[in-house]
Specification:
The structure holds 2 protein chains of 2 kinds. Helix content of chain A is about 35%, strand content about 40%. By secondary structure, chain A is α+β, with helices and mostly antiparallel strands. The interface of A and B includes residues 51 and 53 of A.
Chain lengths: ~150, ~80
């Protein structure tokens, strides 16, 4: 298991390679990369500032990955979340899961994404044309999280 | 009881500080009681921590409920619903 909260960019290819090599039994690797969009509705976005709660963020993400490992027969998992100032098209988050068959990896990857959206202490502030706006939690994210109960 | 308080994101900006050390009366013994105690400072505190605000609380870096007990030297954080991912 690999979990990291970091300012610097990550190499999704290297993370995928690590997952592939975690065991000879790996038959599937599923990954998700979240990116900074350049617009919010019709408004251009020039940057995204991600604030977090150092220490708690790492532990909360580790806990989510542990839950995924307890729930599905997966072989390895990697989750990286960036913080700090990001520009449009930059990567924000990586979640990758290796398993024997694809179904477990797909489910676990989606579970980790849904959980981290609502349960790790990170907050986004969007720099738009004339203002900077703290994003509000989305009801749809909460619904996505609660369906795993 | 001495506590270390931390504030994040929009709440941090609203109250104007990111952390403080505070000695609270013994009656302030739960997360919810602490929130009420801070609201009583009035002004931006009353507004930012008001009952209609969807504020989350963590005790010693774990998510907490308003009824959860505080202990001496705990780190208590207040913040808005998270928006990572």
């Amino acid at each position: 298991m690999y979990v990291s909260i970091q300012e610097e960019d990550f190499d999704a290819g290297k993370l995928m390679a690590g997952l592939r090599q975690s065991s000879g039994c790996v038959g599937a690797v599923v990954s998700m990369v979240g990116l900074v969009r350049d617009t919010h509705g019709a408004e251009p976005v020039s940057a995204l500032m991600l604030e977090h709660y150092p220490g708690m963020t790492q532990r909360a993400l580790e806990s989510i990955c542990e839950q995924a490992r307890a729930r599905w027969a997966i072989l390895d998992i990697a989750a990286v979340h960036r913080v700090g100032l990001l520009r449009p098209s930059e990567a924000i988050v990586f979640v990758g899961v290796a398993s024997v068959h694809r179904a477990q990896a797909f489910a676990a990857c989606e579970f980790v994404m849904d959980q981290l959206k609502t349960n790790i202490p990170i907050w986004k502030k969007e720099q738009r044309a004339h203002t900077a706006v703290w994003l509000e939690a989305q009801g749809s994210d909460l619904e996505a999280q609660t369906r795993w109960r | 009881m001495k506590l270390r308080l931390r504030y994040f994101a929009a709440l941090r900006e609203a109250v104007g500080i990111s952390e403080e050390t505070l000695i609270v009366p013994a009656a302030v013994c739960t997360a919810g009681a602490l929130r009420t105690y801070l609201q009583a400072r009035g002004g931006v505190w009353a507004d930012a921590l008001g009952p209609t605000r969807p504020i989350r609380i963590a005790i010693n870096q774990r998510m907490a409920q308003p009824s959860d007990a505080l202990e001496a030297d705990a780190e208590v954080a207040f913040f808005p619903p998270v928006t990572g991912g």
